[in-house]
Specification:
By secondary structure, this protein is an alpha/beta fold. It has two domains: about 5-15 and about 90-220, HAD superfamily/HAD-like (Rossmann fold); about 20-85. It has helices at about 20-35, 45-60, 65-85, 95-105, 120-125, 150-160, 175-185, 195-200, 210-220, and strands at about 5, 110-115, 135-140, 165-170, 185-190, 205-210. Strands 3-2-1-4-5-6 form a six-stranded parallel β-sheet, with helices on both faces. β5, α8 (about 195-200) and β6 (about 205-210) form a beta-alpha-beta unit. α1 (about 20-35) packs antiparallel against α3 (about 65-85). The chain starts with a strand and ends with a helix. The model has no long low-confidence stretch (mean pLDDT about 95).
Amino acid sequence: MLKALVFDMDGTITHLTLPLEAMRNDTKEYYISRGAPSNLFEPADGISSSTDKAREYFLHNGFSKKEWNSMETEIDTILTKHEGFAAATASLIEGSLAIVRKLRNAGFKIAILTNNGRPALDKIMQNIPLRENFDLIQTRHESPRPKPFPDGLLKIAEELGVELNEVVYVGDALIDGAAASRAGIEFWGVSTGETPAEALFAAGASKVFASLEGVLREALSLNQ
């Protein structure tokens, strides 16, 4: 029985305003500036995959864990700066909070898992009433490791008090599907962000919807 829905934020609940390409490029350029070979990274690498590759490279080439942790802190500062600019112009996808409220009224537990940092989220919540509409909102700063690692989803399921087969993750990006798959949680895609439906299916989505209206209908039908 479905008891909880966890949503990505950018491209799912709010319009995607993050300069993702710039964030990905800045991540790679930072690691290259610290000594990583440029051919370590591929054009398709995102922030997380680039960081995974960089971590393996640096820790296997004489860098200490302390030095790596310092680099991660500097990357977080770079990402937070980009997120801060995007947060100032964040806006809701039309009808998204109304759908969230309908799901909560139907008895579902509702959460957000985002790779945004806490400072950006706090800035967004100054203008968008997210806090009062979700049971739990978790950023990369509260997750042991960010998506595509499963840690954030596993932590949310535990905090909501639901089993993994009682929760779905709803998101618009390939990284969302990867995190859900690694967590053993069903993934529902929405083609409201950066990724077309066919790519979301390829990323492991059991269902893909054109909008959150489809998510609402599906969730309600499962518990009839």
